[in-house]
Amino acid sequence: MANFYITTPIYYVNGDPHLGTAYAEINADAFARWHRLLGDQVRFVTGTDEHGLKIAQAAAEHGVTPQEWVDRTSERFRGAWGKLDISFDDFIRTTEPRHVSTVQEFLSEIYRRGYIYKDLYVGLYCISCEAYYQESELVDGKDCPVHGRPVTEMSEENYFFALSKFNDRLIEFYENNPGAITPETRLHEVLGFLRQGLTDISITRSSIDWGVSVPWDEQHVFYVWYDALINYLTAVGYGDGSGAFEQWWPSVHHLLGKDILRFHAVWWPAMCMAAGIDPPAHFLVTGWMLVNGEKMSKSLGNQIDPMAVASDLSSDALRYYLLRANGFGLDGDVSLESLYRVYNADLANDLGNLVSRVVALSIQKGGGRAPAVPEIGSDPLGAKPLLEGSIAAWNAFRPMDAIDHAMAIVRAGNSLLERAEPWRRPEGDAESLDALGRVREGLRLAAVLLSPAIPKASLEIFVRLGFGGAGELRWTAEAGGATLEKRPPLFPRAVAG
Ligand code: ME8
What we know:
Blueprint: E1 3-7, E2 11-12, H1 19-37, E3 41-49, H2 53-61, H3 66-83, E4 90-93, H4 97-112, E5 116-126, E6 131-133, E7 152-161, H5 167-176, E8 181-182, H6 184-195, E9 201-202, E10 204-205, E11 213-214, E12 217-222, H7 224-228, H8 231-234, H9 244-248, E13 252-257, H10 261-274, E14 282-286, E15 289-291, E16 294-295, H11 306-312, H12 315-325, E17 332-333, H13 336-365, H14 383-395, H15 399-420, H16 430-450, H17 455-464
Parallel strand pairs: 1-3, 1-13, 2-3, 3-4, 8-14, 13-14, 15-17
Antiparallel strand pairs: 5-6, 5-7, 7-9, 10-12, 11-12, 15-16
Helix pairs in contact: 2-3, 5-6, 11-12, 12-13, 13-15, 13-16, 14-15, 14-16, 15-16, 16-17
The structure holds ligand ME8.
The site of ligand ME8 has 22 residues, from strand 2, helix 1 and strand 13.
């Protein structure tokens, strides 16, 4: 049994979960579910990033302490992910004692090894990003490139991480492990950045106190990014002697958006090297969900509410749309209009209708019993190659492709029924029952392959078609015979609105 450890970014709790953060969760959840289906031992970790200036300011604006503020806001994320059927195994909050002690232990190890030193820092800081910028990176020489708002000059004495010492090792690491970043375009971006040369970075703050304190100098707290990245180690018990760390590290898959690629693919592996542990094995970098060509974000206020979609349609509908919307790693425009269009075409028409049709025809022509599944034989559905294609796509982290292959089985099922025309044939006709049995098995396979995307509907499909459960990931002849019943549509047609 293989281990499969996957993480999402831990989100800032100063806003509500939105479509972008839901997108990361849903992708990671689909991969976790896929690997559970394969029988792997899965550890899927998400959480919330609760320290830093932005959070302290939001708490002050609401007249509560930072801790009260993060207790409240973190819960909104956990609740939202529950409603979207996110099957995380652990939810890390960076204010938890287990995390605070991991941060202190890990960074003390880097300090002991001589890669952290004290110096004066003067720089241009964006509070929304919690990051310093070089003047050349700013828009019109003054505005943050992400938020479009002016940055502020900050000066403080603080501790630095000797990032520049890891420049060559990082280049060597990526040259030797070109599969470490998916998609490959992001690997080239990282290598390009590394070849320009790295400078040391400031990793503590003395101007704020809402953070993890530096154990060897209590006047300082760690810069929020340095604290946040370490959650990936907290989740596997770094330093707790339980053996979990050795089991799960370093073969981890870090899923993240392209906006935080450098923190993850440059700083984080360097920190690991500095602490004497292996860098993480794999980064899965998503593109951006765009609305009318613009990045949707909390600050721009142009978001689609994922929770409203989940309650108006279903969590499966949202999940399917987001996984199917564009190829993994690419930017893609999303809109409610296209969501409803995809929902009606793929889920209501193709999939939902075919399930209803097989049930109705089995009732009319098969005595109300599930038709037997014949041996695959000449495979008129083309199920075998489509199944293999879908499996390969899920294994290669390409959900859109995996879904397309599964949906092609569904469409082949519709065509087979059109050809066999069981509705024109007498009850008990052998050819009709063969076609119905094949389509029934094709739907089971499609539902298994789609289950990482639409977990609820997949279970319902197994029940409606008289299967005991998901069954095997291969064509399986079976005797049939379970009683089938007509039920309301699996995905009722819907209009936006
Ligand atoms: O960056 N399209 O948290 P965050 C796609 N706390 N994905 C999007 C998106 C969009 N329009 N908007 C956001 C942080 N995301 C840090 C992370 S990890 C150690 C610390 C997703 O709340 C995307 O995955 O700003 C992005 O990387 C993440 O949300 C940023 O979430």
